[in-house]
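Provenance and format

Records in this collection were gathered into a single text stream. Each protein contributes a sequence line and a token line. The two records reproduced below are adjacent in the stream.
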Amino acid sequence: MYQLNLHHLRYFLIIAQEGSLSGASKILLIGQPALSAQLKQFEQYLGAELFQRIGKRLVITATGEYVLKYAKAIKALEDELVLNLPHANESMRKEFHIGAQESVPKSILAETMSRMNRVRPAKLKIIEGTGDELAQLLTAGKIDFFIGNFRPRSEGKEMFYMSLGKEPVSIWGAKSFIDLKKGFPKSLEGKAFIMPGFQNPLRHDFEKYMLQAGVNFNVTIEAQDTALQKELAVKGEGLVLFGDESMKTWAKAGLLHKIGSAPGLKEEYWLGMVKKVIDNDHIKSILSAFD
């Protein structure tokens, strides 16, 4: 008796994707007659027509669309299995890899790890990097959690987030900008700023604040890397926006100075993870620490 298998689901997915047997044949490296026979066998097993044959094109039917949803879900589960199999013993070792953005205050990072350990003692390995780098590691399954000041997106993957808290944000600059403290925020008129990209909510909030204050400013440098933003600010290339807590070390060293604070302007930090089809029990218990 014929049994449903992953090969037929994959053939069906590629055929639906390409819209033709010829296109799917090239990708799958299978002859068209053999591929056509496999599709027919799959349809016979399901007892439904999945495509309408219009010339050389295959147009998916309503039933085919319904089957396609399940085929994609099964393919996602297959991918997840392959991705996580090398870490099958992690549940025994209780080890988690946490990607931490450099801009996250160490106090928030320490509190997050402390809460994780209180619920489920584990070995926590911290990997620091830029937001974009860590977002890629998260979606690739290289880290279990992401801690940062924005919510990364991933095509085709469902993300889960929890807020870790907020901190007041101020405008910071090199010593040469100290005089701007007088008459703040009007003193910022026409001044150069080093800003994050448009995907950062803080930038939108700051632009709204400046608009309401009737102050124009110039974004002379746009950079995602917060470490680079600070280094450029130290060199006097422009003003930057950072949370007060995360700037303590820089302020104490006299490298950057607070020019002024924008009332109501806060930076929010997030704990994020890729939602898996089969969740690890340890991850579930850790997330309960933030409920």
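Adjacent record:
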Amino acid sequence: MIELWQLRTFVAVAETLNFTKASEKLYLTQSAVSHQMKALEEEFGVPLFIRAKSGVLLTDAGKIALEYALQILNKAEEMREKVGGREKALAGRVRVAAATQALVYLFAPLFEEFMDAFETVELVFRTTVSTEQTVEDILEGVADVGFASLAVYSPVLQVVELFDDELILTVGKKHRFATEKEVSIRELEKERWILFERGASIRRATDDFFKKVKIEPEMALESNDTYFIKVMIEHGLGISLMPSWAVREETKNGKLAQVRIKKHELKRSVAMVSLKGAQSAPIRAFIEFMLAQKEKLQSAALD
């Protein structure tokens, strides 16, 4: 007979792909974790993991088992909340991870709305420098919900696309491009660039663009500080590719200008990421709230 505690251990191993890390996460000995997984495999009659020196991998049977285990644990958590009456209180904490610029410029108004609607739920924010770090925070249990640019995949992650945005050429008001509606690729070749540091989703999209159009950018500087990058662009030290939502105020007051690149659109998809397993009522409420804001987010991202 399969027990819930076995499924929780199985999911922990599937998330970490490592018995030692799973045992630390569950506060169990490694031998206890190994024993539980051996008993579970005997119950199913098939191996769930391929064991290697560096860790483990899920077999095809293990992947199927993981999908069901996540569903069962999620339903079990819902049952506990309903039977215990905890769903009525809806009190708790939701830890949210995203890149700094997205938290500040795009999500902040929606988070304020959520906190007004759910006063007993505490939102805790964690800024990350890359999509990879956001996903890692979710997998390691440091954050409950993250926002990251696609593509993101893991058998234990729930990934829901929220909106698309676009990176647009951003220049200072005195730059020769500032009065242009669009510029050609050839015109970009001699420009100096201010770029986000490697690992950031914006930098990844920018590098893909440079590779596609065969440009080797001359870099003025790199930074993950959005405000600093905007100030440097304003002072004429270089140009950059930035989402329109991140420079809305500066373009409105004339400090910066955004110019389109002929025959090119740098579109990105941004998703909400969380674990598929058992989620608390506050986390489910937050996810449902954000999904209900998709149209508002899309409008804000491309406004």
